[in-house]
Amino acid sequence: MPSIASIAAPEFRDRAPALAELAARLARIGGGDGVHDTPVAGAAVIRASAPSQPLPAVYDPSVCIVVQGRKHALFDGATYVYDPMHCLIVSTSLPITGRIIEASSARPYLCLRIDLDPRIVEALSSQVEEDAPGDSAPGRALLVAETSPALLDAALRLVRLADEPDAAPVLAPLAMREIHFRLLTGALGPQLRALCRSDGQARRVGRAIALLRERYAEPLRIEALAEAAHMSASSLYERFREVTAMSPLQFQKRLRLQEARRLMLSDGLEAAAAAHRVGYESPSHFSREYRRLFGAPPRRDAATARAPD
After folding, report:
1. Hey, which residues does 144 pair with through a beta bridge?
2. Which of 57, 49, 131, 60 is nearest to 92 (CA)?
3. CA–CA separation, 165 and 143 (whole Å)
4. CA dihedral 101, 104, 107, 110 (to 10 degrees)
5. Rounded distance, CA 26 to CA 46, Å?
6. CA 87 to the chain's CA centroid
7. What does the H/E/C string look like for the chain?
8. Does the pLDDT at position 308 exceed 80?
9. Where is the HTH araC/xylS-type domain (predicted)?
10. Higher-confidence position of 73 and 191
11. Beta strand pairing status for 70-75 and 94-102?
12. Could you tell me which residues come within 8 angstroms of residue 20 by beta carbon, excluding any fewer than 6 positions away?
C-alpha cells in the first residue's frame, strides 16, 4: 500500500507531513485496538486493525480527525464518510451507528477524537464574523467538514504535548482553543456556531439529552425533560426530533439497549439481568427491541461478540 506522501492529490500532499507524524504518534499512544485516553485531557485515540461491523453508540460532542483509514457514520438514513481529508463534527450527544471500512494490521485505522466544549465555541463566536442566520431551526447536530492543514497542525501540536507533561497543563488549553477556532472559521463554522449557541434551541435540546443519559433507566416524563430544557413539551418534542432524528422515547430506548449490551459484554451479565438493570420489566419486550437494533437476540449477539475471530 502506498505511503501517505505518495498519494497523488496535491491537497492530500499538503497534509502529508502532519498526517504522517500524527499517525506515528497516535499509533504509539494507542498500542492496541480500542479507545485510549491520551495524557492530554479531552483527547483520545481510536485504533482498529480491521474493518468493523456496524455498531450503534452514542457519540458525545467532539471532532473526530482521522489520520489513517476511513469510517462511516450512519445517522437518520444518511451516511457520513470521514477520512484523512474529512473530519466528523458532533455538536451534541447523538445515537450514531459507526462502521470502520478501511483498516488493516499494516495500516490500522487511527483517529484522534477531541472533545468539543460549547463554552469555548460561544466565547470565540463573538470574535468570528457572524454570517449565519439564527437557529430557530437548529438542524442536525452531525457535520462533515474538510480537515484543513491548519486544523491538522493544531491537532499535531496538541498531540505532541503528550510528551511534555510539565507543559501540557499550560499549553493544552491554548491548543484546544485553536482547534475550536479552526472549526469555527471553516466552511461549517456558521452552522456549528448556531448549534452551540447557549440560548439556542439545539443547546436546550442538549440539556434534555443530558438528563436522559443520567436517568435513562427511569420511566420517561416528557414534562421533566421540557423543564430541564426550558421549553414547552410540544416544542421540545419537535426540536428533539430535528436534532437527533428520533423522539425522546426512542432515544431513551437506544440508551437502554446500548447499556444492556455493554453490561452483557463487559460485565458478563445474563440478558434478563441486563434488561432489568436498564429499566425493562419484560424480558420478551427487551429481546424484541434488542434484536431490532442489533440484528440478533441478546444471547446470540453476546455469544457472537465474545467469540474469537
Report:
1. 88
2. 60
3. 33
4. 50
5. 8
6. 11
7. CCCHHHCCCHHHHCCHHHHHHHHHHHHHHCCCCEEEECCCCCEEEEEECCCCCCEEEEECCEEEEEEECEEEEEECCEEEEEECCEEEEECCCEEEEEEEEECCCCCCEEEEEEECCHHHHHHHHCCCCCCCCCCCCCCCCEEEEECCHHHHHHHHHHHHHHHCCCCHHHHHHHHHHHHHHHHHCCCCHHHHHHHHCCCCHHHHHHHHHHHHHHCCCCCCCHHHHHHHHCCCHHHHHHHHHHHHCCCHHHHHHHHHHHHHHHHHHHCCCCHHHHHHHCCCCCHHHHHHHHHHHHCCCHHHHHHHHHCCC
8. no
9. 206-304
10. 73
11. antiparallel
12. 3, 4, 5
End-to-end CA distance of the chain: 24
Indicate the residue type of 271.
A
> What per-residue confidence (pLDDT) applies to 9?
60
> Side chain identity at 52, as an amino acid letter?
S
Q: pLDDT band for position 126 (50/70/90)?
A: confident
Which set of grid coordinates corresponds to residue 5? 506522501
Q: Which residue bears the cell 492543514?
A: 149
CA distance 130 to 29: 38
Strands 109-115 and 62-68 turn out to be: antiparallel
Pairing outcome for strands 78-82 and 142-146 = unpaired
**Residue type, position 187, single letter:** A
Residue with cell 495524557: 39
Query: Rounded CA gap, 263 and 279, in Å?
Result: 13
36 φ/ψ angles, rounded to the nearest 5 degrees: -125, 125
Quick one: how far is CA 146 from the chain centroid? 17
pTM of the model: 0.84
| pLDDT tens-digit readout, 210-252 | 999 999 999 989 999 999 999 999 999 998 998 888 999 999 9
Beta-carbon neighbour count of residue 296 at 10 Å? 14
